[in-house]
Amino acid sequence: MTRQTPLGDGLTVSPLGFGAMAVAQVYGSVSHDQGLAALHSAIDQGMTFIDTANVYADGENERLVGEVLRDRRDEVTLATKFGIVGLSISGESRPTARGGHDYVLACCDESLARLGVDTIDLYYMHRRDVSVPIEETVGAMAELVAAGKVRHLGLSEVTADEIAAASAVHPIAAVQSEWSLWSRDVESSVVPAAVAHGVGFVPYSPLGRGFLTGTVATLSDNDFRNKIPRFAGANLDANAAVVDVVRGVAAELDATPAQVSLAWLLARATTMGIPSVPIPGTRNPARITENLGALSLSLTDAQITRLDAAADLVSGARSGDPNWVSQGRE
Q1: Which of 56, 123, 124, 204 is flagged as catalytic?
Q2: Single pTM value for the model
Q3: H-helix or E-strand spanning residue 113
Q4: Which helix (DSSP H) or strand (DSSP E) does residue 290 occupy?
Q5: How far is CA 111 from CA 26, 62, 78, 108, 123, in A?
Q6: Domain count, the chain
Q7: pLDDT, tens digit (0-9, with 9 covering 90-100), for 92-149
Q8: SS3 of 129, please?
Q9: Which residue ranges does the record assign to the NADP-dependent oxidoreductase domain (predicted)?
């Protein structure tokens, strides 16, 4: 895969990225070798936009990505993030956000050391610290660009107003938020704001944290999805209706539910006039190949209409704390 997708601020990346959180002990146990194999397979197949964060596995995910980068740095567009503290997969503690000037600068240096690189291609504010003016946070990020430690800036789970305020400080290349067939709240104001300010969009969990693939029936005890309302109790069973719609379209196209879900998201972004690069994650190299198949899948207008309607079938919120995501602050 040689084609590239432009986001914002002159940044171009592979048309699908790889969400490295999937190999960070978040969705259950995964071995070190399994994580390395998945990352190498993604790059081998042209999925060279790799996304991690300092908080994933308490920095170990960045170190894992760094192992891959030792010999393949020139092949990869590297994204990482700062801003979440106190993340607990078990749910025993509630995470908080930090965005103070000195904290931002320190986090970048720590990430550079763990990754073993001199420069981060895309550096995200992972969550908005509402106790700190966003101008201060983005101003510190802009200093990192001036110092050559970061090439482009990104924001995650921000509101339309926050996009506007941040863009007044420094050009923003990408906004990353959850966006998929069953998480469409960003379409009301976040996506239009990104379009207005020339910002690309990077949907995380574009497969509904794996649910839209049709392979999620039960969750292990150490799976953080247990804390998400739409995966809890009766909601998990009720949401099977969404997957049924996706499966129906997949059968018509001789495709998989994952491919249909990604193809819908790419088509939806095009309709809304925004460059978009989803970042599905997986531990299985075969799934990477499968996901890339979405790039050549075409949906009919009738199929898109059926998939659009599936959002009305979703039961349960996408976050246990609405204020933790942009939807709760809009």
Answers
A1: 56
A2: 0.95
A3: helix 101-115
A4: helix 285-292
A5: 19, 7, 11, 5, 10
A6: 1
A7: 567 899 999 999 999 999 999 999 999 999 999 999 999 999 999 999 999 999 999 9
A8: coil
A9: 15-311
Active site residue 56: yes
Flag whether pLDDT at 90 surpasses 50.
no
Residue 158 burial (10 A CB sphere; 0-12, 13-18, 19+)? buried
The answer to whether the beta carbons of residues 245 and 310 sit under 8 Å apart is yes
CA distances from 55 to 59, 62, 66, 67 (A): 6, 9, 15, 17
Structure-token match 């983005």, residue found: 138
212, 181 in Cβ contact below 8 A?
yes
Give the Cα-Cα-Cα angle 162, 164, 169 (nearest 5 degrees): 95
Give the domain range for residue 210. Answer: 5-328
Q: Both tokens of residue 114?
A: 């763990």
Nearest alpha carbon to residue 32 among 287, 283, 210: 283
Here the CATH number for the domain that contains residue 25 is 3.20.20.100
